[in-house]
Amino acid sequence: METTFPQLLAQHAKDRPAAPAMREKEYGIWQTMTWAELARLVEHIACGLYQAGLVRGDHMVLVGGNRPRLYATMLAAQSLGAIPVPLYQDAVAAECVFPINNADVRFAFAEDQEQVDKLLEAREQCPQLAHIFFDDPRGLRNYAENGLASLDSLIEAGAAFARQNPGFVPAEVARSHPHDVAAMFFTSGTTGNPKGVVHTHNTLLDRARAGAAFDKLTGDEEVLAYLPPAWIGQNIFSYAQWLACGYVVNCPESAGTVMIDLKEVGPTYYFAPPRVFEGLLTTVMIRMEDAGAIKRRMFHAFMDVARKVGPSLMDGKSVGGLDRFKYMLGNLLVYGPLRNNLGMSRVRVAYTAGEAIGPDLFTFYRSIGINLKQLYGSTETAVFVCLQPDNQARADTVGIPIDGVQIKVADNGEILVKSPGLLKEYYKNPTATAEVLTADGWYHTSDAGFLDAQGHLKIIDRVKDVGRIMGGANDGAMFAPKYVENKLKFFPHIKEVVAYGDRREKVCVMINIDFDAVGNWAERRNLPYAGYTDLAQKPEVYQLIRECVEKVNADLAADALLAGSQVSRFLVLHKELDADDGELTRTNKVRRGYIAEKYDVLVDALYGGKTEQYIETQVKFEDGRTGSVSATLRIMDAKTFAPVKAAA
């Protein structure tokens, strides 16, 4: 069996040269690249890179969105024994400096002018970055920087070299070994500098194959590649499993056309973090609120049926004849058109991961006939640790350990993993490597959880984040901030939440409204507003959010373990949390500790009993300029409920 990515490419090109490997939408038209065409492109890029001086063991940075030529460049680098290092395309220049210097990067691929400008700015602190090859030439005609060249010119030079040396690339590919380093992915760096996670061909492909076998994936799958290539989740689904299975990867035209492209492609295998599923549901709910009264009533009536019997039907359980008929009717009138509108009419398997998904959100998708499941993994584990079988998808677990994985729970509740997909090391960071990898091969996940009676893994929160309420009526109660945040984020009007309560007498939260959803809600009520800050502080909006908070509190009261995590006070932030402002990671995870320091005056106001607090915050705009946003924020109390058992 072929054991490296370039070897798999060569095999596909030999066995099925005319089969589609990738599609790219350009100027509104889908362009197909076959496996033979891809292999030829990879050979030419590899020859060009070799002539430019890329050698075995070198690192090569790639910055851009999902494009066939980005993936071809990754394969070309690997063909020479070099190591691709994808970086987030929305990262600013300063965020690129550490990875480039840490990995001694001399070569870079940039998708377009924006990424070229970023790398040129970073090069002032990274003098070894000698070669930058760009894909899209628009706006770059008059650039005369040393080492800056088009990918087209590289391909042209490589093609000439390949004609003279036809056996060069195959010989280089043959030298590769499954335990050679294949790629490096940098972590988000929430608590300091990011760490380079080193993976071999074997670790990535072993897990890709294990995941493919679990869900019976074939070369007939269709996948839409729209998430950042620097995120290992996207890389596994659109690169490792793509080459392991030989299915088709489709690249959207732009971030703005993803929804349209999703409907056109009709993927059979779909992956998205909870934030994307939240956004899709918010769009649906906004459209339903704008619909006529009859259509709204029909939608809500059939959704009640879906919530009642949809998950059972999805799991193959028996359902009463009348309920089955109602669901069939609902499928004809509501669920089918809704799946089609979401671009999921052909989805056979859909996964979500990256962070916990709200149980109501999870149930919604399964109830309308979308086989949404959860998986558990991380950059360090090559993603696939636990997956949910088709008939055992539950909102409160992340599945069972798949082939090759062992799990045990430490005394402090931390989950430990042993798997063929574990990282080789953190690059140039033996101390950090020793902290997460034990001498006998167990990986410390930093997640708290347990295996239930059915063998499913349940995640509570990060070990460091699980805390205790101290003082007051809930003294000693468990506090799991991510669990509280996710329950609130199910509501379409709430985009982001930051919860606090560890070693405090009560739980307080800061909330970001979803500007589109709440804006639509306000317009239908003739409620005027002048931008996000103004809308966020409207008394009517606070009342709307308060109702959401109190519904979550009622749900938490029914859970004996987490009843003490009910939200006592909340405020709505005057600005959206933003990765450019350091408040979110590049994978859109909340940096709770950083936010607590940045907004310490708000945290103090929440716990100090204040009803309002003035704050001024510096923000960074997309063009690099800085400014400030100020407002006097309201602070509101929320009703809490006695635990159900105590009430009984």
Q: Which helices and strands, and how do they pair?
A:
Layout: H1 5-15, E1 20-26, E2 29-34, H2 35-52, E3 59-63, H3 68-79, E4 83-87, H4 93-102, E5 107-110, H5 113-123, E6 131-134, E7 148-150, H6 151-164, H7 168-175, E8 181-186, E9 196-200, H8 201-214, E10 222-224, H9 232-245, E11 248-251, H10 258-265, E12 269-271, H11 274-290, H12 293-314, H13 321-342, E13 349-352, H14 359-367, E14 372-376, E15 386-387, E16 400-401, E17 406-409, E18 414-418, E19 425-426, H15 430-436, E20 443-451, E21 457-462, E22 467-468, E23 478-479, H16 481-489, E24 494-500, E25 507-513, H17 515-524, H18 532-536, H19 539-557, E26 567-572, H20 592-598, H21 600-607, E27 612-620, E28 626-634, E29 636-637, H22 644-647
Parallel strand pairs: 1-11, 3-4, 3-5, 5-6, 6-7, 10-11, 12-13, 13-14, 25-26
Antiparallel strand pairs: 1-2, 8-9, 9-19, 14-15, 15-16, 17-18, 18-20, 20-21, 22-23, 24-25, 26-29, 27-28
Helix pairs in contact: 1-2, 1-3, 2-3, 2-6, 4-5, 8-9, 11-17, 12-13, 12-14, 20-21
Distance between the termini: 62 Å
Structural class: alpha/beta
Shape, principal axes of CA atoms:
globular
- Taking all Cα atoms into account, the compactness measure Rg is 25 Å
**Beta-strand residue percentage:** 15-25%
CATH architecture of one domain: 3-Layer(aba) Sandwich
Uncertain segments:
none
